[in-house]
Amino acid sequence: MPPLVRYRIPIIGHTFSYLFDSVEFFAQCRKEYGDIFSLYIWGQVRTFVGKEHIHEVLAKDDVFSFKEIIRKKIPGDAMYAEGFGDSRYNIMVIKEYISKRLEIYNERMQTSLHSSIQKYFGESRESKVFHNLHYPLNKVVAALIANIFVGEEEAKNDEVIATFAEFTSDMAIFLAIPPILDFIYPGLQDYINRIPVRLGLYNPAAKHRNILVKHIKKQVDKRLKERKVCQDSWERPNDLIQEFIEEKNFDPNNIDCAAIADKLAFIIFASIITTSRSCTNAFIDLASRPEYIQELYEEQLQIAKEADKSGILPFEALDKMKKLDSFVKESLRLTGDVVGNPHLVLKDYTFSNGLQLPKNHVVDLYFDDICQDKSLQGPNPKSFEPFRYVNKNSPASKISKDFTVFGGGKHACPGRFIATTQIKLFMHNIILKYNFRTESGKVEEKLRIGPMTFPSACGVIFEKRNATN
């Protein structure tokens, strides 16, 4: 078994150090105990894996399962008849229906961004200060995703946008609740969390499901009628609803809109809040470092020459945003999560160094061991160097041994392409449209809760650009 780090307080174990001194604590554990070590936190022993063996965890999908941890933590089995559905199907939907068809959605994504930026940040030339930017950016990302999922018409509805924006945060409450009851018995907290859902006292998915069903039914009925009337002249909509309608198991005589809503639920959960978080981090990272804005502005200004009269860039222009892509990747690398991405061990496993883990054990990835490592990242790995990846054939969506933000192996995040596309398109537009800086004039640090971080709620000053600046 991996070595268990010494601790002094019975029952509590390493929980306090894990919560309140995670950066230094994990660095010290790594120094004293090596690449793989175990801690006693929240009433159970959990193992943490560093840079030398992280890719074993990511590659062995038949041994280590991230989805099983999510299923345990979030009571989808109590909220939905089929839980969060078949994960293989969900991955297929993201890959085949979205990631491989981003070019089809290109114009709509940009139109949605133009509209949302104007709506939430305005056109006034007077300076404005915005606090807690994660809130409006969550709405921006929600509008864009809704456009792809339920179509252009429904994505203009405020009720739909609210559901897309709030669904993940409402569900994530189960992840946010400290597992204090696990001190009594491991897994007790997850069991107790399911009780109010099963009793009908609290179900955060219910209201969102009802809204989705209402709008999905409207679209399905409309499309089936229009297709019947127009026949060959019918213009096919491009969105997830239409993809679901055209699947072999769809029965037009027995339409189950609730089932379609449930299919959307997991995809919404996986796609909104992580993207908006990363987008907010990238924006505040740049606002904290205004010395890089001009260089990025000049690149975006050159790329903007390829846009049409409506300001829509060709999809190929994204590949030319070399400096912006590098900035986004550096922001992702320095997100600040010390550890995360827990996996459940599905069967007994022996690492290549001989250390063993039993079935049902939990393994976390020690991200800092990769992101802050000089041998992997090059000189000054702890400093923010925005153009670290320029001319290195290392785009923000590319997974590698030195970049595990999106996981790795064949189950690397399938939504990384749309996520990085959205972030780059947003940053491109916001850089061209505004001058901005932090209200404090300093580099704003992220909010840290235990080993995880969240975007700063700092104030950011916006000023509309003149044509000459």
UniProtKB/TrEMBL annotation:
Molecular-function annotations in GO: heme binding; iron ion binding; monooxygenase activity; oxidoreductase activity, acting on paired donors, with incorporation or reduction of molecular oxygen
Cofactor(s) in the UniProt record: heme
Domain of life: Eukaryota
Residue sites binding heme per the record: C413
UniProt entry keywords in alphabetical sequence: Heme, Iron, Metal-binding, Monooxygenase, Oxidoreductase
PANTHER family noted in UniProt: CYTOCHROME P450
Family according to the record: Belongs to the cytochrome P450 family.
Name assigned to this protein: 9507_t:CDS:1
